[in-house]
Amino acid sequence: MSSSDQQTYERLCHHARQTALLESTRHLLHWDEQTCMPTPAGPWRAEQLAQVAGLLHERQTDPQLGAWLESLSAGPLAQDRHQDAGATIWWLRRQYQKQCRIPASLVEELARASVLGQAAWVEARRTRQYATFKPHLEKIVRLKIEQAEALGYPQCRYDALLDEYEPEASTAEVTQTLDALRRQLVPLVQAIADCGRSAPVEILRRQYAVDSQQQFGRQLATAIGFDFRRGRLDVSAHPFCSGLAPHDCRLTTRYSENHFSESFFGVMHEAGHGIYEQGLSTDAFGMPLGSAVSLGIHESQSRLWENMVGRSPAFWEFAFPIARQHFAQTLADVSLPELHWAVNHVQPSLIRVEADEVTYNLHIIIRFELEQALINEQLTVADLPGVWNEKYRDYLGVTPQHDGEGVLQDIHWSGGALGYFPTYTLGNIYAAQWIAAFRQQHPGWDDDVRRGEFTPLRDWLSQHIFRHGQRFLPAELVQSITGGPISPTALTDYLRGKLAPLYGLSQ
Amino acid sequence: MSSSDQQTYERLCHHARQTALLESTRHLLHWDEQTCMPTPAGPWRAEQLAQVAGLLHERQTDPQLGAWLESLSAGPLAQDRHQDAGATIWWLRRQYQKQCRIPASLVEELARASVLGQAAWVEARRTRQYATFKPHLEKIVRLKIEQAEALGYPQCRYDALLDEYEPEASTAEVTQTLDALRRQLVPLVQAIADCGRSAPVEILRRQYAVDSQQQFGRQLATAIGFDFRRGRLDVSAHPFCSGLAPHDCRLTTRYSENHFSESFFGVMHEAGHGIYEQGLSTDAFGMPLGSAVSLGIHESQSRLWENMVGRSPAFWEFAFPIARQHFAQTLADVSLPELHWAVNHVQPSLIRVEADEVTYNLHIIIRFELEQALINEQLTVADLPGVWNEKYRDYLGVTPQHDGEGVLQDIHWSGGALGYFPTYTLGNIYAAQWIAAFRQQHPGWDDDVRRGEFTPLRDWLSQHIFRHGQRFLPAELVQSITGGPISPTALTDYLRGKLAPLYGLSQ
Q: Is the pTM of this model over 0.90?
């Protein structure tokens, strides 16, 4: 390789690092908006975010960057996409080409519309008035269609939006995977409804002091491996994890005194995201080798710790005595099997973030279908609440009493995140594939968990996922770890395996 | 005026507003660094701040901006510096000319050195090891000398740095004012030392539960007029107020259980800054007409509420019953006159932020002299701790036992803020001039305070100071409000008037 190639590559990396710095400033503006900012400052924050989005777009479409990428793409450094330089060049070129297709004005308009849309959504959700949110959503859908058209797509508009969150995925393939999953889940939900047993969910609705929830959540997040010296846990309306900077990963949750699961599994979930972020290369922070592969892979980390670990019988053998220290009175008459069953109850419900592991995926499939219809202009924003309610009746057998527990429940669309939802279920599918592969290699895992020893799983994830950054695409990661393709079978096997004994089903 | 002038002026204002947006992003990075950011993320934050400082400098030295300013300066809009357009053009031109003199590399280097310097200072202060901080301070002093030389100055290097905080002030004039003040204060301190009476300061060192301190501080800050719907109160190592955005003003404080004054008067002080920020025009946020005049004027607001209001007998008639609700046991055997005397005790001490209203100014004079000596290269950073200790012995009769209670106590130099300290005492002087003028016009003020009615003072400040933004320079404000020049007499009169009855001095 010529020394000039090496020099160009170094310049490219320096440029990308500067972009990562600015991107991380953008993330701080967002984090602060959700956790700290006084509400009346929203319009100004929208302008700040639009400005930073514009500056970022300017950097990301810098013609100098394009020239470096073109020159490198033909050379030896770009030969192998699975090597350090090859992966870096491939991803940066992909981003550059995508960014160049979107006009700066659209970038700024989207940034602004997202902040204003979120503020309107918060208000609409509080007052259960879809009308407050409707004009914002109309604008956002219009801008997202514009974005998809600007980006271009192989088969359908939705491909362009999905690609933002799950790179190189296609709507057709995801549809096929989710359909296969649904065909397995619907009879499982039915079998549970028909079995005549119901979980003692009342336990979860008792009084859990918020202080104790905070301590318990922190203690267990620390136990599974989230490093609070390099992170935080705050409160926000919609929980999230933000990997703001190297050594600065922030989780949020929300607490309600009569709802044990919401905060606890929320913290486990976000800590799972955080463990991934903290496990990425700090030297390559914000660069392809120090970034998460996709949102689906990110979600596989949160689901793994929230569900495959956090809802397992072995985990509660470890956690139950600790829970009883924090909630002595509340749990005085509760046995370990009862609590374990309660946190694994399955029952169709209205709110996605409170849904059980099985029906959760049906919530996602509804959103996946609806956002495709919006983007393909087969459904208007005005008709959305009605169709939402119909689908809930058809797929889950439940009907929202108001839009607050219906179409207004999620933050995503208000922030311009259309194409995002399917990554949640992809995350569940990947996570089940990871834990199946890991268990084969670590037959003593349940014993480790009973002792509160979570290092083997973290080390395995680090070795197979974290350390690679974006070296492999999601399907490549699945292939290298499981030896096969993306498939929902591991997820349905895992769910049946856990739920059959609880609900007395045949396996 | 030509319509082209008007167009140019609108472009200028749009440009300045965009700069204000980016500046406010920079402030958020700083606020977060002090309040939320995990320590290991410091080096990355330094890079972020350097990047934003570079982007800001690029905007602030934009040749297009220079062209607009030159063209406008000759026209009718710039005729009167006390009119809206005139003030805006004058200040923007002043900033533009100053910024153009500083190379971008120096701006970025200073931003980086400040963040790293602050991190080193935190560590040095904790371990009381000046050596940890010394190389950073050497670098900072070198960069500030470079900055002063680049900016240029009428008489001495320190003029250039002082001008950053107190625009158009001169070192010679400030020296004269502070000397006059010192000549009055030294005999007052001596008289108090000789009077044989001592305040019951033990009261302030009793146990004050942090929770109750938080509630009490918030309640009183709200009472005097800080609007928490448009602001926050957080915890940081060094208390500050940051007017981050329109409707987003954030205060910080720190709590220790055995130290009533530190947090309470800290909150009153920062709330004073906050009331000024919240009183500035939100439409002109970050523009000359929506910005504070100077740090001295800003400090006059914090001192006014902390001392002239918060340490007055009338205020404690209002606040004492509230304090007894929050600290029932701690204050059970304390009378109102005792508490009032305790919070007005005068005694030479080592720590500036814990100093009383009288000796505080001697702490400032020491720093003012030392930073001039550093900048004029009459004192090395290596010799600084020794000279610090000497001055404390000479001026205050006390000697630090270690550098943690000596030269390492303040954050300012670590963040590159040299030239800042004298604005604290200027603030005391201005505040005394304001309250004297206000009292003449509002003879019933003490009765208002006793009833917890603080609106008359806020309205008066709004009318005479807040609404003008930077329309008037500090000396012009003093002239228009008091009919005379900046003078320490009002401050010494106020101090004697309050302290003489407490310490049995002749007035």
A: yes
